[in-house]
């Protein structure tokens, strides 16, 4: 019995000693694996290691540290001993292949093929870097499993760092349904020109095809040289851009153009337009279809159109909703068409809150359209058949500045004195070519320019213009006015009147009691035979222009006092087509006279002191003197007759009536 017991004791001693040295026997296949791992003991010259550390390939491993010396093998330092075990994993990827680990909703990085079962569902383990805290959790789980014998790890294969791989950015959301992969990004279009260039802000990557991808930069994949799976780092949300060029939320981002300049993309507005005939001109703010032969007004809906020009057509019908889609329209021209009273619906202008100019010339209207836009500043209804104006005709048009009603059927009996009362800002009124026999009453106080030519006016009543104190221009030409039918006090309150046109009337004398501030008096084509003395004496500062052409003036109709009051102001005197036999007397008194016209008279002789004062030292201000078509013999003109005129070419003497035009 002593022999077998002694033998059993020796076996136990050997087993204990082998366990102490970390080299158990009889392990079969694991013997080869353990033999590859060399754990170097500290040399004599090195200080001894603590009992809880291991030295592997010259590196000190702390208690609980884990590493993977080769694929599908995990080693751990436990109680100063290296223990390795195989682990389940997918086949190693080929050289150059990169496995992308996507971040899940739990914000954990996992290996797609690796992992092992164990303990309540078996958490998957990555073969990449593992933190110390996670290593401690793994160690506690490993203690419940049979410990594998330590093996000699194979030398780690050093891999060259792979280039960074871009993957589409994936927005991380709070725990929710699985994230939907982002839509593919498109490349910014380049020009087809031969000089293609890259105008993005990033440096080009020769090996990356999506270098010009529009949007946030994709995440970078960083590969650990000692890890089997790369670690994906997704960049966090960028702060909102700031600065003058930043695109704010809700705004359209400018698209890069071929040359790198931003191209503004205008938002498309809803538009609708019926088919238009050929010859129309279209732009962002203009629709012009003049002289195209259309017979019906098209229905247009466009918020950008500000001008609609449809003149010189054959339009006779306007749909009720034709203008409803043009709320920003400012100018509407429907002149020279075939519109009548039935063409205008009461709701036609309802939506035109910004319309400023409405032109309806050359149509067949007998009354003003109802409910005109209050925003109007200019209204033209010339050359129609309007036959009356009532107190409500211009109701609501308080902003109107210009009103033209020329060539209609107005007369004293069908225009109410209260017609113009709503027009508190009216400054321009044209009533030419009607049938008035007198100046209409009730004119706006704000009026500055009044045109009443081509009427049948015979008389200018006293007080009819008393309220138009701001009047500057008054045109009464082509009427039947005589000087004795003008009331002496008719112009008394027109202190700002500067231009008075009484041409083409029946005047025999220059009218008296002219407005004090008058600067231009137009009296051509009358029957004037005389300029009374002192008729201009009360004017201050005096006339600039006096037009007396085409009258019946003779030499005895003017004397030295006829131009009194104009000596320092008159610059233009027109006496063409009269019956003068000599240069009028008193012209030397006009010190500012620059233009003198005496064409088509009967002048045969020019006295020495008629135009130039031989005793004066200064030159005359005369610039032009017209004496054509008279009876002047140039050989009999005194040498000093034009000596005061600066340029002899300014004196025009040819042709004369007796001369051959050749």
Mind explaining what this structure looks like?
The protein has 662 residues and is mainly β. Among the domains are: 1-90 and 147-155, no CATH class; 507-662, Leucine-rich repeat, LRR (right-handed beta-alpha superhelix) (Alpha-Beta Horseshoe), CATH 3.80.10. It contains three helices and 28 strands. It has helices spanning 2-21, 30-35, 132-142, and strands spanning 54-56, 59-61, 66-67, 73-78, 81-86, 220-222, 231-233, 255-256, 262-263, 272-273, 281-282, 286-288, 300-301, 307-309, 331-333, 357-359, 378-380, 402-404, 428-430, 449-451, 473-475, 499-501, 520-522, 545-547, 572-574, 595-597, 624-626, 651-652. The protein has a 17-stranded mixed β-sheet, with no helix packed on it. Strands 3-4-5 form a three-stranded antiparallel β-sheet, with no helix packed on it. Strands 1-2 form a two-stranded antiparallel ribbon. The radius of gyration is 54 Å and the shape is elongated. Mean pLDDT is 76; it is low at 19-45, 94-158, 160-236, 243-258 and 263-268.
């Amino acid at each position: 019995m002593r022999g077998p017991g002694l033998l059993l004791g020796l076996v136990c001693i050997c087993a204990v000693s082998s366990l102490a040295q970390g080299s158990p026997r009889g392990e079969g296949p694991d013997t080869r694996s353990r033999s590859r791992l060399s754990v170097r003991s500290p040399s004599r010259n090195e200080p001894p290691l603590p009992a809880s550390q291991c030295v592997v390939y010259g590196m000190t491993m702390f208690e609980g540290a884990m590493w993977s010396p080769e694929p599908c093998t995990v080693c751990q330092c436990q109680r100063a001993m290296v223990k390795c075990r195989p682990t389940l994993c997918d086949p190693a990827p080929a050289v150059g292949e990169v496995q992308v680990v996507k971040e899940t909703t739990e914000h954990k990085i996992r290996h797609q093929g690796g992992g092992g079962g164990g303990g309540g569902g078996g958490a998957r383990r990555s073969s990449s870097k593992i933190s110390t805290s996670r290593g401690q959790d793994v160690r506690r789980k490993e203690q419940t499993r049979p410990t594998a014998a330590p093996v000699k790890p194979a030398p780690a294969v050093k891999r060259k760092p792979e280039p960074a791989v871009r993957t589409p950015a994936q927005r991380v959301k709070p725990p929710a349904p699985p994230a939907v992969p982002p839509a593919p990004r498109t490349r910014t279009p380049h020009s087809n020109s031969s000089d293609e260039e890259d105008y993005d802000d990033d440096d080009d990557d020769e090996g990356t095809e999506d270098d010009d991808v529009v949007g946030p930069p994709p995440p970078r994949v960083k590969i650990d040289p000692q890890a089997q799976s790369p670690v994906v780092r997704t960049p966090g949300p960028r702060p909102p851009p700031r600065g003058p060029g930043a695109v704010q939320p809700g705004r359209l981002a400018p698209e890069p153009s071929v040359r790198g300049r931003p191209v503004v993309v205008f938002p498309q507005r809803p538009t609708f337009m019926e088919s238009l005939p050929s010859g129309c001109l279209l732009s962002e703010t203009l629709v012009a279809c003049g002289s195209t032969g259309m017979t019906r007004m098209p229905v247009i809906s466009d918020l950008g159109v500000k001008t609609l020009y449809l003149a010189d057509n054959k339009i006779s019908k306007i749909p009720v909703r034709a203008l409803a889609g043009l709320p920003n329209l400012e100018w509407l021209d429907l002149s020279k068409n075939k519109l009548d009273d039935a063409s205008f619906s009461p709701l036609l202008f309802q939506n035109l809150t910004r319309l400023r100019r409405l032109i309806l010339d050359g149509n067949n209207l007998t009354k003003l359209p109802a409910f005109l836009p209050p925003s109007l500043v200019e209204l033209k209804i010339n050359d129609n058949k309007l036959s009356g104006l009532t107190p409500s005709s211009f109701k609501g048009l308080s902003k109107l500045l210009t009103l033209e009603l020329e060539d209609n059927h107005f007369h004293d009996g069908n225009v109410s004195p209260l017609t113009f009362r709503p027009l508190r800002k009216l400054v321009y009124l044209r009533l030419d070519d009607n049938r008035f026999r007198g100046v209409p009453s009730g004119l706006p106080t704000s009026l500055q320019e009044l045109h009443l030519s081509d009427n049948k006016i015979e008389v200018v009543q006293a007080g009819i213009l008393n309220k138009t104190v701001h009047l500057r221009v008054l045109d009464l030409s082509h009427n039947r006015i005589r000087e004795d039918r003008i009331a002496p006090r008719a112009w008394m309150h027109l202190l700002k009147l500067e231009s008075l046109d009484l041409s083409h009337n029946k005047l025999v004398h220059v009218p008296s009691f002219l407005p004090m501030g008058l600067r231009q008096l137009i009296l051509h084509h009358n029957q004037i035979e005389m300029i009374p003395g002192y008729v201009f004496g009360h004017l201050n500062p005096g006339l600039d222009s006096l037009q007396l052409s085409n009258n019946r003036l003779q030499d005895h109709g003017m004397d030295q006092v006829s131009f009194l009051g104009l000596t320092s102001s008159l610059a233009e005197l027109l006496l063409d087509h009269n019956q003068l036999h000599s240069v009028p007397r008193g012209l030397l008194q006009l010190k500012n006279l620059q233009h003198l016209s005496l064409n088509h008279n009967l002048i045969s002789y020019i006295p020495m002191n008629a135009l130039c004062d031989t005793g004066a030292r200064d030159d005359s201000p005369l610039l032009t003197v017209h004496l054509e078509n008279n009876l002047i013999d140039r050989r009999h003109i005194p040498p000093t007759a034009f000596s005061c005129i600066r340029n002899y070419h300014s004196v025009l003497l040819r042709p004369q009536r007796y001369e051959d035009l050749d």
